[in-house]
Amino acid sequence: MSAAPTRTADEGSRVVFANGLLPGGSLVDITSTGDLITGVDPVAAGPRPGSTTIDLEGRLVLPALVEPHAHLDKAFLAERASNDTGDLMGAIRALEQVRNTLTRADIRDRAVRAAVELSRNGVVAVRTHADTTLAGGLDSVLGLLDAKDDCSSFIDIEVAALVEWPLTGRGGADRRALARDAIASGADVIGGCPHLDPDPLEAVNVLIDLALEAGRPLDLHADENLRADSEDLYHLAHRITSDGLTLRANASHCVSLSMMDEFRQRQIADLCATAGVTVTALPQTNLFLQGREHHRAVPRGIAPIALLASAGVVVAAGGDNLQDPFNPMGRADPLEIAALLVVASHLTPDHALQTISTGGAAVMGLSCGLEPGRRASFVAVRATSVRQSIAMGPPDRLVVHGGVVIDEQKRNTK
Ligand SMILES: [Zn+2]
After folding, report:
1. CA separation for the pair 25, 60 (Å, rounded)
2. Residue 285 lies in a domain
3. Longest alpha-carbon distance in the chain
4. What is the CATH number of the domain that holds 32?
5. Whether 136 and 279 share a structural domain
6. What one-character-per-residue DSSP string does 212-256 give?
7. Which of 72, 225, 243, 397 has the fewest CB atoms within 10 Å distance of its CB?
8. 71: CA distance to ligand 1 center in Å?
9. Same domain for 178 and 121
10. CB of 86 within 8 A of CB of 288?
């Protein structure tokens, strides 16, 4: 990872992570100096002089896992609220019924619980959206910023203000002001749901303008529906290219893109590649929420990330909701998401792994990998291949972030 570290090894301290199996099949020693990888070398016969050695015992070493799209403020609310209709609007209604229980302290506690699970599974950075609504004010933003502090010894948390709709028209002024307050309070990213706004394309414009004004990245919940004429993503990429904007933008969900004809899909994919818009697919939540009005040949509701990647778009995948009314399942494990991409989106295991590691890191403006010069962040699992690691989701993962082994002591926030 290349972001400012929140916990790192002492500068100059050298650690050799010995006997690690790379996805390509070679057995190597990975050397970290401070928080960077400084060597990936064939296994040495004996200990390397002047270094602390940690034996990986032949575990498979994967690039650090990154969760680019979570809602930690809603994590585990399935214990409190259920979605009667099973679709997106049913989830939103269920959430409103328990909204008054979502205090800043409650949000912080559940977010920390989820962050610990993510870390145990090998995640070193997570972008969480924070409901930013007139009813809830900044409670989610502040609760998640509290959790960010609590968890800084083991995971990097980035908070995206998910601004309530409508953002357009007369009713939008208060919400636009709230978005500015969220940024002033410490939110890192501007987010919103233009597809739920009465004027989706104008909502995209408003959100772009808020992000530009704040000088922050933009992450939209885009086109989260099965209507082939929903074009939040197109408008986002079109505005960036036509106005020549410098804006780091990600579009999450992009469900409707999966319903368009291939010519239009490729047009939009090319535009995204030109605009530098990244796309994050959220297979588990969209498989749960979408398509309930269909009774045969049910659409899968997953952004076509193989097609997007073939056009040069940076793609990622995330878990989205974790055991809440939007998705009652989930283990806070990106390998579970990768497995869904293999079976439901027909990605190869290697490509699926990219979406939950280097792809997610690119969305967050980080870089991760297993080469010298990268941040020394990776996860070592008991598996012999990428495919097997995704299939088995092995427990007992050895997580290293910034050259430091992340153990249960580091995850203890008490
Ligand atoms: Zn989401």
Report:
1. 9
2. yes
3. 71
4. 2.30.40.10
5. yes
6. HHHT--EEEEE--SS-TT--HHHHHHHHHHHHT----EEEEE--G
7. 243
8. 6
9. yes
10. yes
Q: Give the distance (Å) from ligand 1 centre to CA of residue 340.
A: 17
CA-CA-CA-CA torsion sign (358, 53, 396, 43): positive
Domain span holding position 255: 65-363
Distance between Cα 75 and ligand 1 center (Å): 12
User: Does one domain contain both 91 and 58?
Assistant: no
Amino acid found at 176: R
Residue 130 CA to ligand 1 centre (angstroms): 10
The CA 60 to ligand 1 mean position distance, Å, reads 31
Q: How far is the CA of 52 from the centre of ligand 1 (A)?
A: 41
2 inside domain: no
CA of residue 328 to ligand 1 center, whole Å? 14
Q: β-strands 398-401, 378-381: how paired?
A: antiparallel
The percent helix, strand, coil of the chain (3-state, each to 5) is 40, 20, 40
